[in-house]
Amino acid sequence: MISLPPLRALQAFEAFGRLGSVTAAANALGVSVGAVSQQLRKAEDAAGIALLERSGRNVVLTTRGRKYHDRIAAGFDQFRSAQGWIERLNTESVLTLSCLPSLASKWLGSRLLDWQEQNPSAVVRLIGEDAEPSLDGDQVDFRLSYGRKETEFDHWAKLFTDWVVPACSADFLSRHPVKSPQDILDCQLLSIEWSGDQGKASDWATWARSVGLDRTQPSGLVAFSLSSAAIDAAINGRGFVLAQLSMAGDDILSGRLVTPFDLRLRLAESYFLAWDPAVLEKPLGAELRKWLFGLGRHQDQMVARLKLARTGATLAAGRP
Amino acid sequence: MISLPPLRALQAFEAFGRLGSVTAAANALGVSVGAVSQQLRKAEDAAGIALLERSGRNVVLTTRGRKYHDRIAAGFDQFRSAQGWIERLNTESVLTLSCLPSLASKWLGSRLLDWQEQNPSAVVRLIGEDAEPSLDGDQVDFRLSYGRKETEFDHWAKLFTDWVVPACSADFLSRHPVKSPQDILDCQLLSIEWSGDQGKASDWATWARSVGLDRTQPSGLVAFSLSSAAIDAAINGRGFVLAQLSMAGDDILSGRLVTPFDLRLRLAESYFLAWDPAVLEKPLGAELRKWLFGLGRHQDQMVARLKLARTGATLAAGRP
DNA sequence: TTTCTAGTTTAGAAAATCTAAATCAAGAGA
DNA sequence: TCTCTTGATTTAGATTTTCTAAACTAGAAA
Fold first, then answer.
1. Architecture (CATH level 2) of domain B7-89
2. How far is A15 from chain B (nearest CA, A)?
């Protein structure tokens, strides 16, 4: 193995070559001139050839010394670049969350704004995307997703479990005053296309079966690829949506959506939060993770306390 | 200015990342495991982020640690490359001489072979070229040239002063038995085209003037671009050449060329030897320089002792 | 000439690095 | 389960390196 010369001597040599004088190098390195002088001699001894030409009171690189210096300096440039990278990591701390698009817009977005207000020093980026990103790069710190995808991550935990319930706008309900769950199935139904393995557990047919009804022939059915779009359509009086309590919770509590029957269907899987362990070192990284899990617990509790009725939804008193 | 982390710590970190274990790194660096362990901790402290993941008895790089390591390792690779370059300089020592082509073939070549025989460990390269090379690279160690070109070099000294004298083959002389210097000018003259500023001091017209003759109308004149080619042509009985004593000395002493009159013309300039100061550090570099200057002195002495006559040339006894 | 500047050299102080031994943690084998 | 082995960490103190301060040298400038 090639054994390297004393590194401190190389450093003195690099500084000297870059700055052109022993005095300047000493200042740059924060040591005395004598120290640099000694290290330069050591560098020459280690190299075995004359690197410097001393003519009385000033010192210059020899031709070969210059060449050697070029190579050594390239090495130190690498070090400085590495150092710059590290320092950037330590100072500019953007926290990046990746989240399923509908959940991002209908649930996480507004809540995350609250957190950022309480932590003004934090810079948060929220990305809505279906594909699971890699948490190994420095691109994404957190991923909030659903189902079995958790296997793709090293560090994750369950966030909350969601439910669906049929909901429509108050206006639509007054025009279609459904008397029984069966009547819902005869209205305009807004359907959501779940992608891939998110399971087809929460479509209208499954819901119907779960409440003891049979729905073989669909009435006019409009399909949305985004839950959020389907919910918005329902708010606009376009029909019944099988709304997730997470995404539609705010709309239901505020009366923009009403739920004639409290017939909920639990989703087969849960939402989970995965994270890059490195984020815990970032400023506010650990705090954000804690807050997100608090948000998940809060969501589960909210669902448990939610009373749904044709006249409006209310929250029962819960544990503080 | 970006201040670098402790270099020794970086070195330990680099070795660890490259070899995958603290023990291996310690062996590679030739220190104890404990020392490496301490340096690794120092590297982490300096970086400010977790570089290593310790799970009981084994340690691995974190994702960020790997990235940091890649950059640091690139720096050390530079160092190793620089070290390899230095070591190559110190071990493989080829001595390279650049010389005017004719002087190389007719004078230096055979003499240099003698020196190499006496110094079998030396590897010598002789390059014949007209253009002055740079001695700043590591390509050429010595340059042997003529005239004012010495100004292009930092380190040089006069080598010897040359003279020209008319010479032809014994055969040619018997066919053209010249009685006086004037008769020479009526024979076939072999001329040499000196390039650029080497001076036109040594052409036939100059020689004629120097011996009190006038040569306005040239007889049939053949011009060579290489002195060596002109001399060879004279040896082959093609005419008179204005031969330099350095290049034709051997031929004159051996009788391949004869000189009817000892009417010499001193060249306006001298030959000089320039060198790269770095060569003095190479094995045998200083010796070769000393020998070359000895050769120059020897040449001047030889010229002083040389007796030229129609019947043949002899060397007067000189200082030993 | 003296003075100033830039670098070198030295001895001893300060800091860093290292070693050796004790300790810890986890997996292997009885 | 307990013990053994392996690989890493931690400590105290020894060793080595590096540094400083001050004396010194050499060339340039006043």
1. Orthogonal Bundle (1.10)
2. 12
